[in-house]
Amino acid sequence: MNQDSHPRKYLLYADDDVDDREIMQDMIAEIDPHLEVVMLSSGLTLLEFLHSLPVHATYPFLIILDVNMPRFDGIETLQKLKSDRDLQHIPVVMFSTSNQRQDIDRCMHFGARDFITKPICSDELIRVTSLFSNYCHDLPAQTKTLKDQ
Questions:
Q1: Whole-model pTM?
Q2: 6 DSSP assignment
Q3: What is the DSSP string of 104-120?
Q4: For residue 70, what is the domain's CATH number?
Q5: Within a domain: 34
Q6: Into how many domains does the chain fold?
């Protein structure tokens, strides 16, 4: 918990594209300045980040995963998250340039909360970013406990 005893409200965004990460960071800062975004470049770094959280740290309120990443792609990362009893409670939204039905079906089968195709126009990006913010505000804070070790 931070100094004013409210849990840290943040989301994780894993995408190997630097430009996409910067755009997302800027959009969320504009739409919801109280929501922090932790940017990660791969599914592997995302999993390492989550496993390194200290006891009593607040888990992210949402994870956004790009589907196409090196090392651990989004679907592989999603599977690992949802098979880990300490992390499976964290909602995951898949965010991809793909709109292939097979990708969408696989992600939903493995436990994604949503699958969103990356928007092309700025109005759509604002709508999607607002949706991410709403997801975070609709969920209670959860902290890492000793049993999660």
A1: 0.88
A2: P
A3: HHHHHHTT-SEEEEPPS
A4: 3.40.50.2300
A5: yes
A6: 1
